[in-house]
Every structure is written in C-alpha cells, then in structure tokens.
Design goal:
The protein has 365 residues and is an alpha/beta fold. The chain is 45% helix and 15% strand. It is built from 14 helices and 10 strands. The strands form 2 sheets. Strands 5-4-3-6-9-8-10-7 form an 8-stranded mixed beta sheet. It has a two-stranded parallel sheet with strand order 1-2. Strand 3, helix 2 and strand 4 form a beta-alpha-beta unit.
C-alpha cells in the first residue's frame, strides 16, 4: 500500500521510490513531498498529467508512462485531479504501488480550485522536482521512448520543445473526427510538450483565464515566442492521441470555446492572425446577416426582401454544410447532424465571438 502524505508547510522526508498520494491538509496548502537532496538531484524531468473524471483513460495513460525506456529514478509523474474523486485516486494508488518497485514516484494532487486545465497544469509543475517539465493529457498514450526523445532536444540553450501527436483513424471520419485530427498539425500542444521549469516560473505558467481545454497552450507558446525562447521541434517524441467518441451534435456545444479565441487575440493579435486564423469568419457573418435580414423582412411585411435574404441564407448554409460533408462520412445519421448543426453553428459562433469580445474588451471578429 503506498504511503499517503498530507501536504503541509512542514517538509517531511520520504524514501525515494515510495509511491506517493497527496491529500489536502486542513489549511488547503499543497506542496510536493520532500526527499533527501541526493534523491531530488536525480529527478531530471517531471511528467504532469491533468485529469478530470476519466479514470479509465488515465489508467491507460499511466500505463504508457510507467513503461518509458527511461531511468525510473530520474523522472516522476504528477497527476492533478481537477474533479477529485475516489475512482481517479484509486487508479493513481494502484499504479503508484505497481511502480514503486522500480523506484518511480507517482504523486496525486486533488485540485480544490481554481479549475480548468491551465490551473491544473500550474498546480502540477509548481509541485514538480524536475528541471524539465513534460506535459501530456490523460487521454494520450506515450510511446516508450517519448521521454528519452524529448529530453534529448534540450541541448545548449533550448528552453522548450514539442513532439508529434498521432491521431489514428480507421474509417471515413465524421466532421468532429476530421476536425480533431487537425491537432496532429498544431504547434506546441500540451498533449506533448516540454519546458524548463525556470522558464515556466519566469512566465508564471499558464494563464488560468483559459478555463477550457482551448488556446491555453497556444498562449504559452506565443509568450515563449515573444520572449525569443529557443524552441525545438522533436518529431521523434511521439504520443498517440485516440479520438474519443462524441455525442451527436457535439460541434454546437464546442462553439462556446470561441470566446477564448478573443482572449488569445487580445494578448497576441499578430501571432493569432499569423498562426491561428488569418482573417475573420466572414462566411459566418454573411449567414447571420442574411438570417437577420430575413427575419426583419418578415416582421416588416416586406416579402421580396425576405425572400431574397432567405434565398441567400439557404444558399450559404447549404454551401457550408456541403463543405463539411465533402471529406467526411455520408451515413444518414451524420448527414442529418451536418444539416442541423450547419444551421446552428454560424449564429452561435458569432454570438460567442461577441461574448468574448465584450468579456475581454477587444475588437475581435
């Protein structure tokens, strides 16, 4: 049974290699369990894994991390539970017990808030003992040489690095799956990146205003670019990121994330236009404008104006739907989903863009 160490301001020694489960003290203060200096010096890299209510996926992720072809006494795993529950804690306890025999330390940190992946990662890296922090997600599977390849990039003055993400598809994808697979081509994604702890301290980590799993990694990347950090790309450091099943119409709910594009744009307008989206989604605005004109024409009793606006709205919406179907599945269920969501997405996207612009006080369109 692994040791359970309550966090407090008083540092206690724990034998290196003991599996560690961290629980909050009455004061709510968290700290990493201390070790003898000789043991601390051995830790080269700390792997931070935020998780939130996905114990089965977390278990699969930890299995891949424990199997790393890397000296077990030279790295540690820190799991930050953003929705603390017994099932997740038990998963970490079981893997910690399994890993203790080879000298690998696994720490469990239950987050009491603030919440969100950015805040969870901050909690993790601040508790870390390694000079280099490796970030991945609870739904990934790292190849056994992931850490080794990633750490080899830190030669000379390299301050950060990012590896390759593989998102396998075994059939014609849905629109959601095709969109998710685009992560393979993204730069510096927190599912597979590395950063010196000293640099994270200088930047104060992730911006916790990014409350969803959206754009918080791009913000960190842009801040690294602004400080002219030397960043290495390591395509040989690979994590596999299976695409999870999604509910029908998931793309509608995802539009809410757009409000954090406004925050990213406010902080880094030039880099946002260069690396995220070069121009606004004018097609969405034209669709919404046509829809509003249609509604206004009906309300004012102007049938010709309403008919013209309705025809334009229909043509633009059909074109949007057909574009989404071009490279995706043509099953009846998916076609029906594309029709319904193509009607809803433009007005919702414009709405959340306006919410973001108002919330973060920026001219974001």
């Amino acid at each position: 049974m692994p040791k359970i160490i309550a966090f407090s301001r008083n540092r206690k020694e724990a034998k290196h290699g003991d599996p560690v489960v961290c629980v909050p003290t009455a004061s709510g203060i968290f700290s990493n369990p201390s070790e003898k200096k000789s043991s601390v010096d051995q830790i080269l890299v700390s792997v931070v894994v935020p998780t939130c209510g996905r114990p089965q996926l977390l278990s699969r992720c930890l299995a891949g991390l424990i199997l790393q072809r890397f000296d077990a006494s030279s790295f540690e795993i820190i799991v930050v539970d953003d929705a603390p529950c017994r099932q997740t804690r038990n998963v970490v306890v079981e893997w910690a017990s399994h890993a203790s025999g080879c000298g690998l330390s696994i720490t469990y940190i239950p987050s009491q808030g603030p919440h969100g992946p950015a805040a969870a990662r901050n909690l993790g890296w601040r508790a870390a003992r390694g000079e280099i922090i490796a970030f991945t997600d609870d739904d990934t599977m790292a190849r056994t040489d992931w850490l080794d390849k990633g750490l080899r990039a830190f030669q000379g003055d390299v301050q950060a690095a990012w590896g390759r993400i593989v998102m396998p598809l075994h059939r014609t994808p849905t629109d959601y799956e095709l969109d998710a697979k685009g992560l393979e081509h993204a730069e510096f994604v927190t599912a597979n990146c590395f950063c010196r702890k000293s640099v994270l301290e200088e930047l104060n980590g992730f911006d916790e205003r990014f409350r969803f799993a959206w754009r918080e990694d791009a913000d960190l990347y842009f801040r690294l670019l602004n400080m002219k950090a030397r960043i290495a790309r390591v395509p040989t450091a690979v994590v596999v990121h299976p695409i999870r099943p999604a509910s029908w119409g998931v793309s509608v709910a995802q539009q809410r994330k757009v409000l954090f594009d406004a925050l990213l744009f406010k902080k880094h307008p030039k880099l946002y236009r260069k690396k995220i989206r070069a121009a606004p989604r004018w097609d969405y605005y034209f669709i919404v404008l046509a829809l509003l004109t249609l509604m206004l024409g009906v309300a004012l009793g102007a049938p010709l104006a309403a008919a013209a606006a309705g025809s334009l709205w229909l043509a633009l919406t059909v074109g949007f739907c057909m574009k989404r179907l071009r490279l995706t599945a043509k099953t009846p269920t998916h076609i029906a989903e594309m029709i319904v969501t193509s009607v809803l997405i433009p007005p919702l996207a414009v709405f959340w863009r306006m919410v973001g612009a108002l919330k973060f006080r920026t001219r974001f369109v």
